Each structure stands twice: as C-alpha cells, then as structure tokens.
Amino acid sequence: MENKKEMRNWLDALNLDHPLVIAGPCSAETEEQVLKIAHELKDTDANYFRAGIWKPRTRPGMFEGVGALGLNWLKKVKEETGMKICTEVANAAHVKLALENDVDLLWIGARSTVSPFIMQEIADALKGTDKPVLIKNPVNPDLSLWLGGIERIYKSGVKNIGAIHRGFSSYQKTKYRNIPEWQLAIEFQNKFPDIPLILDPSHITGNREMIFDVSQTALDLNYDGLMIETHHDPENAWSDAAQQVTPSKLIQIMKDLKIRKETDAEAEYNNALNNLRAQIDIVDHDIISLLGKRMIAADGIGALKKKKNVAVLQSKRWNEILGKMVLEGEEHGLSEEFILRMFKAIHQESINHQEKIING
Questions:
Q1: What is the CATH number of the domain that holds 275?
Q2: Which domain holds residue 233?
Q3: Domain tally for the chain?
Q4: Closest Cα partner for 250 from 45, 19, 85?
Q5: pTM of the model
Q6: CB–CB of 156/128 below 8 Å?
Q7: CB neighbours of residue 235 within 10 Å
Q8: Which helix (H) or strand (E) holds 195?
Q9: d(C-alpha 244, C-alpha 224), whole Å
C-alpha cells in the first residue's frame, strides 16, 4: 500500500491547533446519559463525540449495547451541541444504519480487524463514502493484518482513513489492559506517515489513572490524536468503568499534556529529539521487563539445581551463551566489548538469584 496524503484530508480540514480528540462514553446507556455527557464536552477540546451502541463483548450475558436506538440519541447530540458524532461498526448492517443516520465518523474495532472476511464485508458496505473511517489495530500484534484491513477499506474507495492504536492482548499479566507494543506502532508510522494515527489510551491502560502518561507518550511520538472514553459518572458506567474519565478530568488532561508543535527549525529539532527519546524510553522499559522475566527463569533453574544438588556455575553453558550473544550482537552493530560487559553483568545477577534460592 502506497503512502497517500489524501488520507489526511479529513483531519487537515478540521484545522486544529491541538491534537484531535474523540471523547464520550464507552457505551450509550440512556438518552439522558448520552446528552448529559455531550453537553459537558461541547465546549472542550473534543472534536468528535463517541459512544458505542453495538458493543462486542468477550463473553455473552454482558451489556452489548442498546443497538440502533442509540443512533437517535447521537443525532440529538449533533442537533443540541453541534458536535460531530461517531460510533463503532462491526458488520455491513451497522455500516448501513450509521450512514443512513449521518454519523460523521465510523471506527472498526480490534475484534473486527482481526478477520479479513469481516473487514471485506465492512469495506464493501462502506464503498465510496466520504465519511472518515478509523481502523483499530487487531487484538494480536500483527502489523500486516492491521495494514491489510486498512488496505481493504482504501480499495473500496474510502479516502478519508485513519488508524487507532488500542494495544494488544497478551496472556501475560502486566499493568496494562492491552500491551501497547509501541515499537509496532512506531514501525507503522515510519512505513505510512500519511495515515493519521490516533491513540486509544482507555483500552491500552484499562485504568483512568494511567491515561495521562500514556497519552503524553503518544504525543511525544507524534500521534495525531486521542480517543478517550469519558463518562459523567464513570464508577457506575455499564461497561469498562475503570478506564473512563469524567469530562472535567479530560479537560485537565488536555491542559496538562505537553504538545510539541513544529513552528520553526528549533521546534522541529526539539520535536524530533523528543520523539527519539520517547522511543528510547519505550525500549528501556522493554529491556527491564525482559530482564525481569529472565531472572524468573533463573530462579526456576536455581530451584532445580537445589533439588539435584548441582553447582550454580556451569562454565560450558556460560561460554556457549557468550559466544552466541557476541555473534548476534555483531549482527545488530553492537561491539564485542559491550556484549561481554553486559552479559557478564546479567550472568552475575542470575548467579545471585540462584544462590539465594539454593541457600534459602
């Protein structure tokens, strides 16, 4: 798929002096709830009012949205506040209803993006629309699958396109609801800089207290906007209560965020520098996380050695690791001296962990 500057036309036409903001409740619950939140957001930085009316849920029996009834509530939002409205579509029937009700922007969720069959069905239903269509990353970290979904929408004749980074599922327990995998999103940006990229910190964090930090990282990485779930009474929301913020909190977040603007040569330099530093911060976090996992494995080895009364230091195994790592380091432009110093430190920490287990 080629870079297409026309994909940015819908965003550029808004002529914003701040990042794009899509805000509103995870789910449209009642007409009163939808309108109350919309009126609290109408004079903020929010450019689009979002609400899920069809809610794909992991397990049956959970609240799955009010359905097409919610479209009437969204139309009232537009009439009463003047805000543009948007919602998620997961099949051709949703697309048809959304377009008939003049929804201004549609997004396709992670559970839909993962299936080429669903994406083609949605693409066919969207054929020729001038509405902006945003495609969330698939639930699994597969860049080709994400780009394939975008390409299907583009080939259907939709030119106003964007991508939403909402994180990726993992069996590992982390502080995130969905792991950001920032490197994959950075690769996406590098390959297709003309596709607007929007962060969904609500679904990445699953925790309203983390929304600000993750949003700031995204802006440091030159993301074009944010989709933040916002509810007037988040504690009592019918879905995803823990990750929604109040309208007043959203206003504060947008005030506190440091937005990098490319207004002159110095600002452009600082913006590029902050972007690269943000990438380094992400990698450093990943390194620490991986080293922690390595030490957990070392603890397991220590327990086995204790059980079998085996010495901690196994010289043959250690020399094999060093030789292999030196060769792999060279492939990545890392000097032998650096690899030796680094892995000797890692090995010593592993020995310390194992000795604690054995002597414990």
A1: 1.20.59.10
A2: 5-259
A3: 2
A4: 45
A5: 0.78
A6: yes
A7: 9
A8: none
A9: 21
Q: Using one digit for the tens of pLDDT, what is the confidence trace for 290-340?
A: 899 999 998 998 888 888 888 887 888 888 888 888 899 889 998 888 888
Q: Does residue 51 sit in the same domain as residue 109? A: yes
Residue 152's φ and ψ, nearest 5 degrees, are -60, -40
DSSP state letter for 138: P
Angle between helices 182-191 and 143-155 (to 10 degrees): 40
Neighbours of 244 (CB within 10 A): 26
**CA-CA distance, 90 to 113, in Å (whole number)?**
9
Same domain, yes or no: 150 and 168 = yes
| 85 & 147 share domain | yes
Tokens of 68: 């097409």
Distance CA 297, CA 315 (A): 18
Tokens 């036409």 belong to which residue?
A: 13
pLDDT in tens, 173-190: 789 999 999 989 999 998
Distance of alpha carbon 152 from alpha carbon 122, whole angstroms: 9
Q: Quick one: tokens of 140?
A: 């699994």
Q: State how far the alpha carbon of 167 is from the alpha carbons of 20, 139, 143, 202, in Å.
A: 19, 7, 12, 10
Same domain flag for 251 and 285: no
Structure tokens, 301: 């080895």
